Amino acid sequence: MSLKPQLEAIIYAAETPISIEQIIPLVKDSVLAEAPEIDAPEIRSRVRAAIEELIADYCASSHGIEIRQVAGGYRMSTKPEQHDVVRAFAKSLKPPFRLSLPALETLAVIAYKQPVTVPEISEIRGVDSGGVIATLLDRKLIATAGRKAVIGRPILYKTSKEFLLRFGLKDIHELPSMEEFEKLLAESFQSDLLPGEAAPADASIDVDAEEAADSGIAESSDTGSAEPEAAEHAKTPAGTEHE
C-alpha cells in the first residue's frame, strides 16, 4: 500500500498533532514490505519525505485545508483564507470558548513574559491578577513552571501545549509581535467575551513589546500537572478580579 495515503489518513484521524515518532510504528510494516532491506534511519527518512510531499500537495489553491507542524507534531487545519467561513460554522455548532477580558490580558502577559509569577503579572497589569490564574489553569491554557528562587518561592507560570493548539503555533518562538497578538486575541475571543466586557477597538494590553522580545521566552510544554498549584489561587481575596 502506498505510504502517502496512509500518512494522510493518520494525520486526518489524529485528534491532536501527531509526531513522526508516533507515525513510524504505524507505517513501518508497510514501508518494510516495499523495501525489506532498509534500516530505521531510512524508514524515518522515507516517512518524513512522504509527509513533506503531502504538505506540498495541500499547498495547492484547490485545497481548503493544509498540513502544518504544530506543537511538535503534524495536523490538518483550515487555510487562513477559509477561517471566516469555518469560524461561522464552528460557532453554529458549539458554545463559544468564553474568557473574561482580565483573563485575556493575563494570558497575553504570561505568553510574552514567561515564566512569570502572579505578583509580576499584577505589577504589569496594575491590578491583582490572582483571581484569573485558576481560570486559565482550568482551561489548560497555562501550566506551572516550578518556583522562582526568591523569598516566598512564588509559582512560575508559562503557556501550555493547549495554548499552542489554540493559536496554531509550532512553538512559543512563533508568537507574533505584541500588537499582532492583541489583534489575534481580539479576533479569536472578541465575540466570546463574557457579557459587558467587550473591549474598545483601540484597547491595548499593557506590556512593552521590546521587553517581551528581550525577556528570554522559554519554550512551552504540557509536561507536568498544574492542578496541585491551582489550589493556591482557588480562593480569591476580596477586591481581586474574577473571570
Defining traits:
243 residues, mainly alpha, Arc Repressor Mutant, subunit A, two-stranded antiparallel ribbon, 11 helices, 47% helix, globular, disordered C terminus
Question: In a few lines, what is going on in this structure?
Answer:
With 243 residues, this protein is mainly α.
Describe this entry's structure for a reader:
It is a single chain. The protein has 243 residues and is mainly alpha-helical. It folds into two domains: 3-91, Arc Repressor Mutant, subunit A; 101-233, Winged helix-like DNA-binding domain superfamily/Winged helix DNA-binding domain (Arc Repressor Mutant, subunit A). Helix content is 47%, strand content 9%. It has eleven helices and four strands; from the N terminus they run αααββααααββαααα. The strands form two sheets. Strands 1-2 form a two-stranded antiparallel ribbon. Strands 3-4 form a two-stranded antiparallel sheet. A hairpin with a 7-residue loop joins strand 3 (142-147) and strand 4. Helix 1 packs across helix 3 and helix 2 (20-34) crosses helix 3. The chain is globular and about 60 Å long. The protein starts with a helix and ends in a 13-residue tail after the last helix.
